[in-house]
Amino acid sequence: MGLFSRPLPEYTVLSAVPPKDVVLQKVVQKVVQKTVARGTHLVIGLVVLGLIAALTGIWFQWAQTRRCLAFYGPAAAKRISAAPRVELWTLAPRSLARGEKVFGEQAPGRLMALHRQDISNAKGLVHLRRGLVEDANFVWSNFQSSAATYPAALRLPVEAWDIAIAFSDSVVASGEPTILAIDLGDQNWQGDQGDQSDRGGAIAVVGRPGRIGLGRIGPGLRKWIDAEKATAH
User: Fold this and answer.
1) Are residues 96 and 22 in the same domain?
2) Same domain, 9 and 57
3) Which of 168, 167, 166, 165 is nearest to 184 (CA)?
4) Per-residue pLDDT at 135
5) Triad 70, 76, 80: Cα angle to 5°
């Protein structure tokens, strides 16, 4: 028998069983792969949840403001929410303000601003902006979205409009503003959302048909306007 006719036992063992560090390395690789897979699934899950939350928020916001968007119009609603310059106007019929007569009667259908006050930095304006675009703050019983379905007989008389709030895209009040004419109504009136009278006040967009009742925004709006008028004196 030759010198190398029998295989050495130690070499046979080494070829059958990997070293301990190789086994440990494979175990670590498997653990890392599983961890990475779980992390990837976690990230994907978080992204999906984020998208669902964002879409839910958008839908909820739209559901709360859809009627106001239709009433104001998209451009006006944007100004109400973010215009840099805001003014408070005290209104009066033009004929009463200037003593004008038309055929022996006061000139109908004309208003003028007796006083204009810059309220761009007024306290509480941020909350007012939000309140003005939330459907639940108003009474929609008498709302008509078309001039054709809104006869002149349903319009309020000129002298009913007390104040206006003007929202301008420019801080120098140039360009065409969005003007909300407001009838403050009876300040002692306590009505509910189902009351179709105008005693609780109303709001209209100058240049667009229709008006809506002030609803639950009315009492707070009156107090806020009174406070702002007091700061002007």
Assistant:
1) no
2) yes
3) 165
4) 93
5) 110
Residue 167 and residue 115 share a domain = yes
Q: What is the rounded CA–CA span in Å between residue 86 and residue 88?
A: 7
Highest mean pLDDT range out of 36-50, 54-68, 130-144?
A: 130-144
Of 28, 48, 71, the residue at which a domain comes to its end is 71
**pLDDT tens by residue, 63-107:** 568 899 999 999 999 999 999 999 999 998 766 555 444 333 344
- Is 128:228 a contact under the CB 8 Å cutoff? no
Query: How many structural domains comprise the chain?
Result: 2
Helix-then-strand count for the chain, H and E:
6, 6
Tokens of 170: 């420019």
Residue 51 and residue 91 in one domain: no
Three state DSSP letters for 77-98: HHHHHHCCEEEEEEEEEHHHHH
Helix axes 74-82, 20-72, angle to 10 degrees: 110
Q: Higher-confidence residue: 146 or 128? A: 128
Residues 44 and 139 in one domain: no
3-state helix, strand, coil in the chain (%, to 5): 50, 15, 35
Question: Do 10 and 124 sit in the same domain of this protein?
Answer: no
Model confidence pTM above 0.70: no
- Domain termination residue (choose one: 45, 71, 97): 71
Assess whether 165 and 188 both reside in one domain.
yes
Q: What domain range includes position 39?
A: 1-71
- The token duo for 171 is 């801080």
Using alpha carbons, select from 153, 175, 171, 167 the residue that is nearest to residue 206: 167
